[in-house]
Write a structure and sequence with these properties.
By secondary structure, the chain is mainly alpha-helical. Helix content is about 60%, strand content about 10%. It has helices at about 15-30, 40-55, 60-70, 75-90, 125-150, 155-165, 165-180, and strands at about 35, 95-105, 110-115. The protein has a three-stranded antiparallel β-sheet, covered by helices on one side.
Length: about 180
């Protein structure tokens, strides 16, 4: 029975496991989207969400900031967590992260996943907006490219044979015939 056994060990000793979670959480708050193994992602989720909940506090910001700073050593990340991310999730009661499964890793077959903060999703530009912006540039590039092509003289059929491999083979054949005679 697994009574009172809460977390995964991730194949590490306690200190190394805590350091791994701190590093993953720092990377997540910094980039807002990271790729890691599925088991690390599942361990990271409650750890990161507790830190975000601390950053949402309205009362006692100093104590909460010091509690987060005990785990996240980079001051700029702590500042971002409290100023930006805490404000973003202030009305949300929980569930600040999303785990997307990617499938097995090529080398060892470990299940991979993307952990992202909500609100940092990839938003591709619409095709109409992209094409409209590129259309004048593309026309200008095509117009600039056309004179370059027209300026280059084309080879005639006779010149093409001399430079052609088949032409060389024919000429070699003629030379060998002349040498044989």
């Amino acid at each position: 029975m697994r009574h009172r056994v809460a977390h995964r060990k991730l194949g590490r000793k306690t200190a190394h496991r805590i350091a791994t979670l701190r590093t993953l959480a720092s990377a997540l708050f910094d980039r807002e989207r990271i790729q890691t193994t599925l088991m690390k992602a599942k361990e990271l989720r409650p750890y990161a969400e507790k830190l975000i909940t601390l950053a949402k506090r309205d009362d006692g910001k100093l104590h909460a900031r010091r509690q987060v700073a005990a785990d996240i050593r980079d001051d700029s990340i702590v500042r971002k967590l409290f100023d930006t991310l805490g404000q973003r999730f202030s009305s949300r009661p929980g569930g600040y992260t999303r785990i997307l499964r990617l499938g097995p890793r090529k080398g060892d077959g470990a299940e991979m996943a993307i952990v992202e903060l909500l609100g940092s999703e990839y938003k591709p530009e619409k095709k109409g907006a992209k094409d409209a912006a590129k259309a004048p540039e593309a026309k200008a590039e095509k117009a600039a490219a056309k004179p370059g092509k027209a300026a280059r003289p084309r080879k005639t059929k006779d010149e093409g044979e001399a430079g052609d491999r088949k032409g060389k083979a024919k000429s070699k054949g003629k030379k060998s015939e002349a040498a044989a005679e």
